[in-house]
Write a structure and sequence with these properties.
The protein is of the alpha/beta class. It contains 14 helices and 13 strands. A seven-stranded parallel β-sheet has the order 3-2-1-4-5-6-7. The N terminus is likely disordered. Its EC number is 2.4.1.57.
Length: about 375
Amino acid sequence: MLDAQDIPTTEAMAPTASIAINARFLTRPMSGVDRVAIELTHAFQRQMTDSSSALRYLLPSKPDVLTAPIRPLGGLSKLFRSRPGTGHRWEQLGLPKMLDRDEWLLSLCNTGPLGVRRQAVMVHDAQVFTQPESYSWRFRTLYRHLLPRLARRADVLFTVSDFARRELESFGVFPTGKAVVVHNGCDHMDRISADPNALSRFGLSQNGFFIAIGSQAPHKNLDLLVRLAAQTKLDVPIAVIGDVNTSVFKTVSGRSDHNVRLLGRVDDSAMKALLENARALLFPSKTEGFGLPPLEAMRCGCPVIATTGGAVPEVCGQAPLYAEPDSLHDWVNAIWLLDENKTIAGEMRARGYAQADKFTWDAAAEKILKTLESHDAQHQSRA
């Protein structure tokens, strides 16, 4: 476990306006939501170096947490740990006690303490309401109880797409008009070096496979890939990255008759190498609050065949080929078009690069910081 003195620091900043990050995300294996929080923290530190703001990172401390994988973030000003408890218990009881007077608390991963009003919360989607089968009863109950109350209590709300904002408002989670939309970035892919041995390690070749990135949640719709591989004559395998549901892929074991290969979790370097060399990313989710993998793929020059579900069209624009999430016919046609049209892959790469350039973490962080500054300015003008 890292202590504050282990974290690199930037030049000292006058603490006239301070922000505390709810850093629970540093104490668990990285999810997509955690990726967003980590990349935003990098961007905050870059943007606040020359400002008058101070930045602190607050996380729980308990023996079982001390052994969790803590990923150091270059340039953090200070990292603080506290008791009691871990997880949601710490977030509700321990975290509020760590805050300084007039300090903003920034909770980037859906949840935060109900007892803190001077807080900005980022809620990424409404899927506990729209896709309940993807979550346990306990998780659904907690989020359905907590999120609306937290959204009413917090001074500032963020979400990651207009689609997510509309859904959160329609389910009564967000008060209408309160949330600010901040799109994610994808330029973290630029700093990752591709693993030159990834293809050989997984038995794949350049342009000789499709890639998919997902999880075991049913709304990720990875069972469509099994049907796609089983009912069509793909000349190359589909390589699936992530923790997948083995009941969905129960006939799949490494190399299967259905031509699907389960690679499991891979590190960022391997993922970049796979994206740079895949024929295309297949992204069949039924819904997404944002949909980061297609943008990551575009940043790496990988053509994308994407779902029409959720926020994906909003985020991806005209760059991908689209297919309805429940239409196997659409997916077969899109793959056929990509294979038969010799120029379309290059056109998709060009459109993808242009689309990905619109989404940077610095722009996202700047919008968040300016929103907090604007809130404080309005509050002071009314005082």
